[in-house]
Amino acid sequence: MGKDTFQLAGNAAAIYEEQKAPAVFRPLARETLNALSIENDAKVLDVACGTGIVGREIMKQLGAVGRVVGIDLNSGMIDVARQLISAETHKCEWHVSDVTAMPFDDSVFTLAICQQGLQFFPD
C-alpha cells in the first residue's frame, strides 16, 4: 500500500477533527478505554490514529512515564494531531506511517489499539 492511498485533501483532516471527533470518535474512545486497564507507565501504539483522539484520551490516564505513539498513513491527520498536543502534556509522538511497514522495533509497546481503521488495511 503506497503512501498516496487514502490521502485527504485540503482541510478535510481539520473538518474531521472539528465534526467527527467530538460527535463519534471521542465518545467511542472513552467507552473503549473504560473497558481497558491501562497502566500508568504504558507505552501505547495508536494505529490509524487519525487526528489523535484516542491518543489524547489515553494520555489523560497515563502517568509521567507513560508514552503514546500514533501512526497514520494520512499526513493531514498527523499534522492536525501534532497541532493539538502540547509538549508538556505527556510524551507523545505522531508518525506518518503505513501499518505494513511501521518504523518500530518489536516489543516496544505494551498496548496497541486501533479504534477505526482496520477496514483500510490490506489483508
What's the gist of this structure?
The chain has 3 helices and 4 strands.
Write the layout of secondary structure elements.
Blueprint: H1 12-34, E1 43-47, H2 53-59, E2 67-72, H3 75-83, E3 91-96, E4 111-113
Parallel strand pairs: 1-2, 1-4, 2-3
Give the overall shape, derived from the CA principal axes.
globular
Hey, roughly how much beta strand do the residues contain?
15-25%
Main sheet: strands, sense, barrel: 4 strands, parallel
> Any idea how many domains?
1
- CATH homology superfamily: Vaccinia Virus protein VP39
Low-pLDDT stretches: none
Radius of gyration: 14 Å
User: Which strand order does the major sheet show?
Assistant: 3-2-1-4
CATH topology call: Rossmann fold
Number of strands: 4
The helix-and-strand class reads alpha/beta
User: Termini, distance in Å?
Assistant: 11 Å
What does this structure look like?
This protein has 123 residues and is α/β, with parallel strands linked by helices. It has one domain: 3-Layer(aba) Sandwich (Rossmann fold). It contains three helices and four strands. It has a four-stranded parallel sheet with strand order 3-2-1-4, with helices on one face. β1, α2 (53-59) and β2 (67-72) form a beta-alpha-beta unit. α1 (12-34) packs across α2 and α1 packs across α3. The N and C termini lie close together (11 Å). The model has no long low-confidence stretch (mean pLDDT 85).
